[in-house]
Design goal:
It is a single chain. By secondary structure, this protein is α+β, with helices and mostly antiparallel strands. The protein is 29% helix and 30% strand. It is built from 11 helices and 19 strands. It has helices spanning 2-11, 29-41, 51-54, 64-69, 87-99, 112-118, 123-136, 202-208, 233-245, 270-273, 288-291; strands at 19-24, 45-50, 75-80, 103-108, 142-146, 152-156, 164-166, 175-177, 182-185, 189-196, 199-200, 216-221, 224-230, 252-258, 278-284, 300-304, 309-312, 315-319, 322-323. Helix 1 (2-11) packs across helix 2. The longest helix is centred in the middle third of the chain and has 14 residues, at 123-136. The radius of gyration is 19 Å and the shape is globular.
């Protein structure tokens, strides 16, 4: 109830008399009920729909009843486990929420533990850290990251590249992932070795869970992946296939600084781990319209690490996964 109330009050900023629509699956009934009860206590009018009762999975399209329910909503929440083949359904829900000018919270593949921990810190503290990080970034900033698992990367930025914050109060017609809290951009240059020992994105990454016993090693030169190593051969083949199958999939599209100080350890879940304090990266899509990058790609694969040390322009920023500045 406490983290649910924090999402409603501090992220979605719901008001008494507004309508809240909660869409969920059977696995997330507990979370949905928490939102429903928290909304009722705040004087908000909740409507809850179990999508699995409306249509069998996978959902190639969103059930019509659910889309119609979003009309006129002030705030909306989607809480479901990830399944392949459902991207279009989830995208339709986000689009319907945007058209309704609702404030939307997106929770895909978020466990109860992850949800509770990621909302432990007040939203204002996370937003304050994001603002401070963004203000500290310079057009020629250099970032270095190291980790006990073997990460050794050097990153350079450029004047045409912009940093974008993900976190804070949601505006009408906008949406946010929960967990939340990261600052991201596309690097001008990145080289070295990146060892993902927390988790990897996508359905394969979700099934793999924590990478602590099977870290994925990416060797990077001039912003591109030159080799992949992993003790789990199936994971290595998956990453190599992703790199080979798409133009730009071998390039580091984004680097991000996780800034949710309530997250203290990796959970093996992408949405948790990419917001955990530390340096994380994605291959492929670089959100060119937000970052100012001059190239782009279709498709993205994210990698997260834990217990990293990060320096910004030669000054310590993070040590063993905890911020030592701006907090």
């Amino acid at each position: 109830m406490t983290p649910a109330a924090r999402v409603l009050q501090e992220l979605l900023v719901v008001k008494p008399g507004e309508r809240l629509v909660i869409l969920h699956d059977a696995a997330n009934t507990g979370l949905a009920l928490a939102f429903e009860h928290a909304a009722s206590e705040a004087g908000v009018l909740p409507s809850r729909f179990d999508l699995e009762e409306l249509a069998p999975r996978p959902w190639a399209t969103c059930p019509k009843v659910a889309l119609e329910a979003l009309r006129g909503a002030g705030a909306t929440i989607l809480a479901v486990r990830p399944e392949e083949g459902e991207y279009e359904c989830r995208a339709a829900i986000v689009q319907a929420a945007r058209l309704a000018q609702a404030r939307h919270a997106h929770m895909v593949g978020v466990s109860r533990r992850t949800f509770v921990e990621s909302m432990a810190a007040p939203v204002a503290r996370v937003v304050g850290l994001l603002d401070a990080l963004k203000a500290a970034m310079q057009p020629s900033s250099k970032i270095t990251a190291r980790s006990p698992a073997g990460t050794r990367v050097d990153i350079e930025m450029a004047p045409h590249l912009r940093w974008e914050a993900s976190g804070g109060v949601v505006r009408p017609g906008a949406w946010i992932n929960v967990p939340y809290g990261q600052l991201f951009s596309s690097p001008a240059s990145i080289r070295g070795v990146y060892v993902a020992n927390a988790s990897m994105g996508g359905p394969v990454g979700a099934r793999a869970g924590t990478l602590s016993s099977k870290p994925i090693k990416l060797v990077l030169e001039a912003g591109r992946v030159k080799s992949v190593e992993c003790a789990d051969r199936s994971l290595q083949v998956h990453v190599e296939r992703f790199i080979a199958e798409g133009d730009g999939h071998d390039r580091v599209g984004c680097v991000n600084l996780g800034a949710n100080i309530g997250i203290v350890a990796p959970a093996g879940e992408m949405l948790n781990d990419e917001h955990m304090p530390g340096l994380h990266l994605t291959l492929g899509d670089n959100y060119r319209d937000k970052t100012g990058a001059v190239w782009t790609a279709r498709g993205q694969l994210a990698f997260m690490m834990s217990e990293s040390d990060v320096d910004l322009d030669g000054v310590p920023l993070i040590r063993r996964g905890r911020y030592v500045r701006f907090v």
